[in-house]
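Working notes for the structural subgroup meeting. M.R. asked for a predicted model of this chain before we commit to crystallization trials. I am recording the input and output together here so anyone reviewing the notebook later can reproduce the run.

Input as submitted:
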Amino acid sequence: MKILITAAGSRGDVAPYTGLGARLTAAGHHVTLATGEVFAPLVREAGLEFRPLPADPRGAGPARTKRELMRTAAAFTRRLATGMKDALADDTELLLLSTTTAPLGWHLTEATGVPSMGAYLVPTEPTGAFPPVIGGTRSLGHFGNRALGRLSLRIADRIFAEAVRDLRTDLGLPPAAPGTIRRRRQATNWPILHGFSEVLVPRPSDWRETLTITGNWWPHTANAPLPPEVEDFLASGPPPVLIGFGSMPADDAEHLSTLAVTALRRAGVRGILQTGRAGLTASDDDVLTIDDLPHSALFPRLAAVVHHAGAGTTAATLRAGVPSVPVPFTADQPFWATRLTALGTAPRPIPFAALTAERLSDALRHVLNEPSYANAAQTAARRMASEDGAGQVVKAIDAVHRRD
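Returned structure, recorded in token form:
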């Protein structure tokens, strides 16, 4: 089967699909991943065909107000809609749509008849079990959570409204509001596969039956060894703490780097700073600076990870069996941070806006000196080791193929 996966966003929003695509390829499918040009090397290293999408939302710069954020997001979805239309080849047999690309992909399915499935990295369906991923972390109870979840979807509909209008015109489809198409998909039990673990998010009992949690889809890695300087540092003393914020930018890299090193010194631990978009760096005998390295190779060698609580990094800490100190910035990160706390693998999150060297060092001492955090992380790792998220997707797609 010729499968087109569409994904948009930062590295954490794209990398899991490289591992999923590689697994589908091994099962005999031809897989193309359409995403931002910057991720073309990741896609090709996984043995997948690459097609470009204008899929990096960072190009417009930071938004300073909610209204500006809505305008920026709407402009991004208009660019993305055009790219998705161009990426869909005539011989595509199945569309796998990410959370961001699904509200556009539904119209491609309607226009072309190519079947589609959701391949989401975050839960979006309203539920009474927890508040929506982007909508605060405080539970409002069963009915309140569901109501807030429905409101969250309506806000997303507004962001996609202009893009959907233009896309439907380009495809020769009659006018229809995003919410109308979304509700139509829900009514037909459109299947969504979720690439995260029930260890972290148990499946809500009020979800419809075609919403499946498969387990994580791990990024494709080449199994290369860690660089010699990293191996030497790891071997030269006790397991260090890694501090890294992935694709999250920082206004003052020097200040944030100094804060991180000061917190490590106060906590009395060695550290690794992962440069990332925040630009972390240090010149200290007990602190090593690195670029991107595979989480699967590095994380099991650490004492703890201080991170932004992106979905991929959050899952990687659990897979490695190491505790976290979550420092969420925005979007879905507070949601994943609170899931780590509820699981017992992390203390209460420190919002990035409230981060200080004192708060970070206190959190590090707490998480490193209280054995319950490491014990909870190791328990989570054992449970996740029995999951095969990509394998569950292969089975679901094979079932669709047999029906066709």
